[in-house]
Amino acid sequence: MKVLFIGGTGLISSASTQLAVQQGIDLYLLTRGNRDACVPEEATLLHGDINNREEMKTLLKDKHFDVVVNWINFSPEDIERDIDYFSGKTDQYIFISTVATYQRPPAFYKLDESTPQHNPVWDYAVNKIASEERLIKEFRSNSFPITIVRPSHTYGETTIPFAITSGAHPWTLVDRIEKGKK
Fold first, then answer.
1. SS3 of 46, please?
2. 3: closest CA among 12, 17, 11?
3. Domain 2-178: homologous superfamily in CATH
4. By the 8 A CB rule, do 28 and 65 touch?
5. Which intervals hold domain NAD-dependent epimerase/dehydratase (predicted)?
6. Where does the chain show beta strands of DSSP type E?
7. Starting at the edge strand that comes first in sequence, how are the strands of the sheet with 26-31 ordered?
8. φ, ψ (nearest 5 deg) of residue 122
9. What backbone phi and psi angles, to 5 degrees, belong to 93?
């Protein structure tokens, strides 16, 4: 299986990168080249800026991927760009969205695909919702092959998933333990 990760060296994606090559997947990583040291040697690196359309058209010319996973899409404009790049060039496009798209406050604390998407107070969530809507429209009108994933708590080898407060004060459970706090 030939798979393209756009990104692949970040918080969530780096573990998936390692697992993909361990599973024998023919993995390509499209990165800007800022974190190549953490890329497994079994992966094929494609250096480029996803937002540079001319560069990407050249880099992706004559390439087809069984799966494309974009770890770094944050807006409907990013989705438009990827639809342009990958229509007819992939059998499956995976969009990494977020659980933050779900209704706030939730009517019920068990979230699943039937939970309404409505979070008008956070631009990140608003943009992810609009991105999902654009992908669904493209699927319905042109059969663009999509999968939408909505991670909740994300962590990796460099980030412990125990944030106690906001992003403005990112104290972790470990930090509090080290300082003798409850």
1. strand
2. 17
3. NAD(P)-binding Rossmann-like Domain (3.40.50.720)
4. yes
5. 4-163
6. 2-6, 26-31, 44-47, 67-70, 93-96, 146-149
7. 44-47, 26-31, 2-6, 67-70, 93-96, 146-149
8. -130, 115
9. -115, 125
Q: Give the total residue count for the chain.
A: 182
C-alpha 84/C-alpha 67 separation (Å) is: 16
The ranges assigned to domains in the chain are: 2-178
Closest CA to 2 of 37, 22, 28, 21: 28
Q: pTM for the whole thing?
A: 0.83
In the block, tokens 């030939």 appear at 2
